[in-house]
Specification:
Chains A, B: Keywords: Calcium, Ion channel, Ion transport, Membrane, Transmembrane, Transmembrane helix, Transport. Chains A, B: GO terms for molecular function: calcium-activated cation channel activity. Chains A, B: It comes from Actinidia chinensis var. chinensis. 2 copies of one chain form a homodimer. Helix content of chain A is 58%, strand content 5%. Chain A is globular, with a radius of gyration of 30 Å. Among the domains of chain A are: 356 residues, no CATH class; 83 residues, no CATH class; 91 residues, no CATH class. Chain A is built from 26 helices and 9 strands. The interface between A and B is large, with 42 and 43 residues.
């Protein structure tokens, strides 16, 4: 490819981007698309609904860009939480690093490459791209020192920026921990592996254990139930309620509201139906014992202080490490209830199985790629499947098969990857939604780096073996031969895949179609669904482009302008999306940053190794040797950061929690928190005011909890593979709990079942 | 080598063993050698000293074998602690596994190998050893199924035995934790990375931190001082004492006893010298401020309960992970004081440096091996160093150079390895002696397996490259080619190195020489020194032989009888040594077992991989494929054990500690324990009744603490690189503390300096 070809490609892609962005600026003004483009604003009721038809609605405008650009860190933090801010800092940090790299590479490196060999240069537009790569520098050239120096400058500036960014984000994470001071998860631990005993129910075991060992700090606990079976129990309860209504209508017992009943502490004594007819008493007994049978060996235990919960969540509890396994509980909306009922002893084998499955998928993904490449060779297909010969004579079909089908097939396979990885992460058994997303994020990151970079580099060159494990000293040389050859491919990859992904991200074509289908075909007036930020697909993508940027910055500096444009646009687009589109349901509290840091260090070290190999191949052994201390320093820097910052992302400092406890005690807020704790974790929620419909929406029910009562918000949650609930009003927002009206609830043994008329979009302003 | 050669070699080695064992049985009866052969008994005063000369003293007798054989588990536990028992269980477990392997291999495998090819067998004595290896089975033979079956049986029985052994040792470890219920280390944490502040001393910082965050559970603390500088302070204190004695002899202040003074809690208020003359007051002020200056950023903090200490030792304390780093403290005699003063922020870099140095040593050890091998080729030496030509014409010198020098040089290099590894482990910065030994043990284990097995196997065959990293599927095949060829070498290795090491172990030639020199040349009547068990050299040796046993059991079953003899003798010898010779100063509480388990699993998997390769080479692909599930099952079994048992060896279960706390509270023992805690950790001890000699023995002073007072036992500790103190009376033995006579001690600020006439071998019976 020559310069003019590259510029043409860049022009086409720029044009497409402009068209899509203009289209977006029009589409976002249409009231019918509010659900697609303003999910976050809708959730916060910050949107002025525009009903009137005006000319203004159909004129493209760059106002969204201005708004996105002007959004402050505080706004981002308020809308998207710390994770969103961390994600944007990834993009900004990449921007900065590659700006420096672009400056360094445009002055000494690029001219040196261009004039590296004595040759007659053609007119610049028809110059081959290879002339601008390091391949054009002649062997043994003294100018390779400039490349070595540039590598040093890029590495050092990247490390310095990373250090300050890590420090900054650690500070923000601590502020986040302190800021979410009324976070119920800080008082709660998840106990798994509760031993089964024939005499006691699980709940009794937990109570016994906690009162025995944590008598002073134990508050109460809440069992986890088998998700599948609870549906049946809920049905039973509903039937029973019907029966009660029939048998004792005069006692004013029937109520329009039945509370979820499976949430709330279980330390209350058994109250309830003593004044009821005997049959009802028997029924309730049955349900009570049924419920006990459906308990699984996991429970949420609430403590009186954060430090007590932290102490109980760390280390080993029992002399059998498979029993009484404790962890700090996730936030209420973050709990992945389905996985809590997985027996703890299964987890290690699930982890191994999903690890193997992910590695298998990574390796076997070569098969669809091979299939796609075979589609490009029609002759072979005709040989293998002679009956197709007739069909393949049609020119249009041939064009479709060779022109579109391969990329469509590949795209379909690639689109399936995040869902498959999410499935693997679900099977793995994380206890929180954010944990599952984080796990999927890592899997997709490894997948992309392997399949986009390594498979392309290794299969595109002479090596052509998939698993190349040769002696270590050859690795650098082999990479040095293979990587520069693919420079043109990755340049166009950034142009097409990178820029296009941003257009697609801002247009949300899938959601737009859904919305259209939902509103104009099904004639439904509600907005179809809300999305949470797909960190598991976007973080790997941004990190992949960073990875490509590092590896090619020195070898083929022409990639840098395109990357810079990508990161700049990404900054704008994701800012806009975070402020307007995505709803934050749960967050990891910035735990994605170490992944960014480690990936960048990996990219840096790989770049240095490749550079070492290239210097070696270009017969500049001194420059090659000079990169070795750089590699060592980079690794040491990484180790230092791991020691200095990483523990904060793994554990919560005891000091901070003790201070928070003390503050709350001094303010007299503790009793209030204890009250809220009893009801804030809600495994099941009813969805309708019709008593016969007390059936959870699906296996992963969701409920939002405000004011101590489980309200149900029937949001059609179409987050990819994600089914969390919407934290419209968090306990941390300091809502005062109102007393539950006991007459509105229904006692089953020591549990209340309570129903409430659900109000679609009963959204509170924050 | 043929059978007769092997039998001759075995005969010679058996004879040598018999001679050494008889010699030992005579030498041990000599009263002058009691210090060498009965260190443990001497320490416990369980030895009847025999002074009379009798004929019986010079007759070899097998009585020691009987005694060693009859020693019960309880005796071993009492003499050598849990670590010794775990070590013996390693030997016994290896015995059992290889007995099963010997039975399996002697019936189907050995005859199949022997009659594997159609050939004319010679007279059995002159038959080559290769006839008995798997190499003699012809390609594609159906009998390879028998080998595959044998592999299954050996693997399964090894796994079953390992499982029950792991379970058993976990139980013993728990019993050990419960049994050492008055262990002061359970109440103590080590705080490192105390931040420096210009206003406060480190001690004040610790007090502030603990009273702020652990007000209810904090008892007191004890600072760690720079070891080098404290010697100076001790001298100053001694001088001051002299001065006091001069100025105020009438006040009865001078005493023969000066307490160590740097130990004991620092929460007492400053008392002391107010009635003294002003000069003394000034002096004491100077010393006090001096002492504060010599504090380093580490302290031992004592808590009121075990659970509080556990809670404070886990997780992250401060929002800066490099500050306020907490760990459970080692036992008093186990503390490696010198390393406590290492700044915490240095540790990670020390760890990396020692890791790299160890790997370097492992790889570079090939150089002395190469040098030794070059000695075998005199012609080349003569070519390189022509001036040696004259010398090398002398036949005797040639014999020495070619015959003895190589093995002597190699032995010297090999002898240096444990010391070097111990040095590396010291530099690494472990806080306990046992931790240091454990770290050295791992290093030596990896060193031996790499340098004895892999380097021999790889350099001895056609591969002849040191770093062989080829594609994974070839590894099995390459090992399968290389390993069987070295069978004869390893058979003789077991015979010579294995059996000889046992003879050397029981004879203790080095100690015997030292003793002789000390008693008959220096005319010193005391016993020279006591030894603690060298786990860091013996465990790797036993595991190496186990490793060889597994890898060759199937390939060359003739190795098994020699190995069985080795393990049987090892059982006897080590039992005898533990009961009689080695003194237990500190222990890890069975933490060596996971190393044994992991090494055995590694050996098993490597055996299976080699077998897979061999089956492949012998063109039995089905048998080869059938070993794959075996490998997977073995790895899964290992992972299960890691989940089920390993956490107990890493952490102490909270449940156990809470129970212990409760017991002690109910018995009213807590106050007593608190009193003992104040004085049980003693960084420095004085060694003489001469006041001017209050100089620590060396940088790593030792002190034994009984009855709450720091007694000094001047044992000449010549444990290899090891300088721990002798736990003659442990706090766990429930000695009642006697009140310290305040008039016998000397106050410096809020610290007492106390001197005591040391009584050589003032050993108390336990």
């Amino acid at each position: 490819m020559d310069i003019s070809g590259l510029l043409t490609s860049a022009g086409i892609n720029t044009g497409l981007c402009l068209v899509f962005f203009s289209l977006y600026s029009v589409l976002r003004k249409q009231p019918s698309n509010e659900g697609v483009y303003f999910g976050q604003r809708l959730a916060q009721l910050q949107l002025k609904r525009r009903g009137h038809l005006s000319f203004d609605r159909f004129v493209p405008s760059p106002s969204w860009i201005v708004k996105a650009w002007e959004a402050s860190e505080e706004e981002i933090l308020a809308c998207g939480g710390l994770d969103a801010l961390v994600f944007l800092r990834m993009v900004v940090c990449s921007c900065r690093i590659f700006s420096i790299a672009a400056i360094i590479c445009s002055f000494p490196v690029l001219p040196l490459n261009y004039f590296g060999k004595e040759m007659r240069h053609r007119y610049i537009a028809s110059e081959s791209l290879d002339v601008f790569t390091i391949g054009n520098v002649k062997e043994g050239s003294k100018w390779l020192w400039a490349h070595c120096l540039a590598l040093y400058i890029i590495s050092c500036s990247a490390c310095v920026l990373l250090y300050f960014e890590y420090k900054n984000i650690t500070r923000m994470r601590l502020a986040h921990i302190i800021g979410s001071s009324l976070n119920p998860s800080q008082f709660t631990i998840l106990v798994r592996g509760i031993p089964w005993s024939p005499e006691n129910s699980y709940s009794d075991s937990v109570r016994k254990f906690c009162t025995n060992y944590y008598a002073t700090s134990y508050l109460s606990h809440q069992m986890v139930y088998w998700s599948g079976t609870v549906r049946k129990i809920m049905n039973d309860a509903a039937k029973m309620y019907e029966m009660i209504k029939e048998t004792s209508t005069e006692q004013n017992f029937g109520s329009r509201l039945i509370r979820c009943g499976l949430c709330g502490g279980t330390t209350h004594s058994v109250k309830g139906l003593t004044s009821e007819p005997e049959s009802v008493q028997r029924q309730s007994d049955i349900t009570e014992s049924d419920l006990r049978e459906k308990e699984c060996g996991a429970a949420l235990v609430f403590f009186r202080s954060r430090y007590a919960a932290l102490g109980a969540s760390q280390g080993l509890q029992s002399s059998n490490p498979m029993l009484w396994v404790t962890d700090l509980a996730p936030e209420p909306h973050d709990v992945y209830w389905k996985n809590l009922s997985i027996p703890y002893r299964q987890l290690w084998i699930r982890r191994i199985a999903t690890l193997l499955a992910s590695i298998g998928l990574m390796i076997l993904f070569v098969i669809p790629v091979g299939f796609v490449q075979s589609l490009l060779h029609l002759e072979e297909i005709q040989k293998k499947f002679p009956f197709l010969r007739g069909v393949l004579k049609n020119k249009i079909i041939v064009r479709v098969v060779t022109g579109y089908l391969p990329s469509v097939v590949l795209m379909l396979f690639l689109y399936a990857v995040p869902s498959i990885m999410m499935l693997f992460s679900t099977i793995e058994g994380p206890i929180s939604r954010s944990g599952r997303k984080k796990s999927a994020c890592f899997k997709i990151l490894y997948f992309l780096i392997w399949n986009v970079f390594f498979v392309n580099v290794l299969s595109g060159t002479a090596i052509e073996r998939l698993v190349v494990v040769s002696s270590p000293k050859d690795v650098a040389a082999q990479l040095a031969t293979a990587v520069p050859k693919q420079a043109t491919f990755f340049m166009t990859y950034v142009l097409t895949s990178g820029w296009a992904s941003l257009s697609s991200e801002i247009m949300q074509p899938y959601m737009l179609l859904c919305n259209f289908f939902y509103k104009f075909i099904l004639r439904n007036k509600d907005d179809p669904c809300t999305l949470s930020f797909p960190y598991h697909t976007e973080i790997p993508r941004v990190l992949l482009f960073g990875f490509l940027g590092f590896t090619y910055s020195l070898l083929a500096p022409l990639i840098l302008p395109f990357l810079l444009v990508y990161f700049f646009l990404a900054n704008l687009v994701y800012r806009n999306q975070i402020i307007n589109v995505y709803v934050t349901r749960y967050q990891t509290g910035g735990k994605y940053w170490p992944a960014m840091h480690n990936t960048t260090i990996f990219s840096l070290v790989l770049t240095q190794i490749i550079a070492m190999g290239v210097f070696g191949l270009k017969k500049s052994p001194v420059a090659s040797a000079f990169t070795v201390p750089l590699i060592i320093c980079t690794l040491l820097f990484n180790e230092y950061c791991r020691q200095r910052f990483y523990p904060i992302f793994k554990d919560t400092p005891a000091q901070v929690l003790i201070d928070l406890d003390r503050n709350d005690e001094q303010c007299g807020r503790m009793e209030e928190i204890y009250k809220q704790l009893q009801s804030v974790y809600c495994q099941f929620a009813s969805t309708s005011n019709d008593v016969s419909n007390i059936v959870p929406l699906n296996d992963c029910q969701f409920a939002s909890t405000s004011n101590g009562v489980c309200n149900t918000v029937p949001l059609n949650d179409c987050d990819d593979g994600d089914d969390g609930s919407l934290p419209r009003s968090r306990i941390s927002e300091g809502n005062k709990p109102t007393q539950i009206n006991v007459e509105d609830s229904f006692q089953v043994g020591d549990r209340r079942i309570e129903l409430e008329v659900d109000q679609p979009h009963s959204i509170e302003t924050t």
